[in-house]
Every structure is written in C-alpha cells, then in structure tokens.
C-alpha cells in the first residue's frame, strides 16, 4: 500500500544533491513540522512537539529544490510515505521518509518568484512534454499566457462554461 501525505513545515537542512548508483539525480533534505497549540493558562501559542522527515526529490524536481530551497524556508511537501527501521553501530531507530511528488513554498509566510523551466529529457537534451493523458489541466499554459519577454502571445481562453 502506498500512503500519500502532505506535510507543512520548515526546511531543516540545506538540500544536498547526489547521484544514485543508477545515475539518477536525487536531492535530500530534512523537514521539521512543529505542531502549535494555544495554551489557555499562559494565553499564548506554544510548540507542542516536532515531527522530523527525510525528504527525497528525484530528477527535475530535485534540481528545482536544490536551486530554490534553503534552511528555514516554510514549505509544503506532498509525497509517498516510507517508514523504515534501521540499525547502525549498535543503535537502532525508525526513519520517516517522504519521496516527494510536489514541493512549494508556503505562501502564508512570504512570497516567492516562480520561473517555469522547460522540461528536458535526459537522453535528448531537448524540451519535451509528457503525453497529454499525463499532463495537469494547466499543462501548456505557458504557451497561451503572456510571459515576461514573450513576443506576440496568443490570448488565454478562459471561457470554461
């Protein structure tokens, strides 16, 4: 069974990009998600515990993570949950990992400047799109919207009635 979850938290370590044995690019970072609650006695918000996650972002998502995120950034991460037990040097524990499917800044706490990047295939180096049945509803939107520096864009058709 694959469990997908969304976590809101802060980047706890600067993202580190490495290559797997098979040559796939992966970017890893730790994510801290702290639960806050209102304490009636002190009439103040208090931290009520932090959950820690190891996040892995593969391929192009990982490259964008490496270029975009820094320690302390507020983010929203959606991905597949993996819980695994480990043992090393006589110590043992449990690791909670997320294989990220989507990551973005949490805009409740600040702003960000989005810059779409062309998709590339590792073998051809040319721009490519996934098949139409795998595209999001907004796929190709950059082709129909006026982008800064674009010349003579087609108007966006928003008549969805």
Can you give a write-up of this model?
The protein has 161 residues and is mainly β. The chain has a single domain, classed as Beta Barrel (OB fold (Dihydrolipoamide Acetyltransferase, E2P)). 9% of the residues lie in helices and 45% in strands. It has 2 helices and 6 strands. It has helices at 59-68, 141-144, and strands at 4-11, 16-19, 25-39, 44-58, 74-88, 91-105. The protein has a 5-stranded mixed barrel with strand order 1-3-4-6-5. A hairpin with a 2-residue loop joins strand 5 (74-88) and strand 6 (91-105). The longest helix is centred in the middle third of the chain and has 10 residues, at 59-68. The protein starts with a strand and ends in a 17-residue tail after the last helix.
Uncertain segments are 125-129, 132-161
Radius of gyration: 20 Å
Helix-residue proportion = under 10%
What's the count of strands? 6
Shape: globular
**CATH architecture field:** Beta Barrel
The CATH superfamily bears the name Nucleic acid-binding proteins
CATH topology: OB fold (Dihydrolipoamide Acetyltransferase, E2P)
Q: Characterize the largest beta sheet: strand count, sense, and whether it forms a barrel.
A: 5 strands, mixed, barrel
Order of SSEs, N→C?
EEEEHEEH
Instruction: Provide the number of structural domains.
Output: 1
- First-residue to last-residue Cα separation: 38 Å
SS-based class:
mainly beta
Number of helices: 2
Q: State the name of the first-level CATH class.
A: Mainly Beta
Average pLDDT, all residues? 81
Strand order of the largest sheet: 1-3-4-6-5
**Approximate strand percentage:** 35-45%
């Amino acid at each position: 069974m694959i469990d997908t979850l969304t976590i809101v938290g802060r980047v706890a370590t600067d993202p580190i990009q490495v290559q797997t044995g098979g040559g796939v690019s992966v970017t890893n970072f730790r994510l801290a998600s702290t639960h806050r609650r209102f304490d009636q006695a002190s009439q103040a918000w208090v931290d009520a515990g932090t959950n820690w996650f190891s996040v892995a972002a593969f391929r192009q998502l990982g490259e964008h993570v490496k270029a975009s995120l820094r320690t302390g950034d507020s983010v929203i991460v959606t991905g597949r949950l993996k819980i695994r037990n480990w043992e090393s040097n006589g110590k043992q524990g449990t690791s909670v990992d997320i294989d990220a499917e989507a990551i973005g800044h949490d805009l409740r706490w600040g702003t960000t400047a989005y810059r779409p990047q062309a998709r590339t295939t590792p073998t051809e180096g040319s721009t490519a799109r996934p098949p139409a049945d795998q595209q999001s509803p907004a796929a190709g939107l950059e082709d129909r919207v006026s982008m800064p520096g674009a010349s003579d864009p087609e108007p966006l058709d928003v008549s969805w009635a």
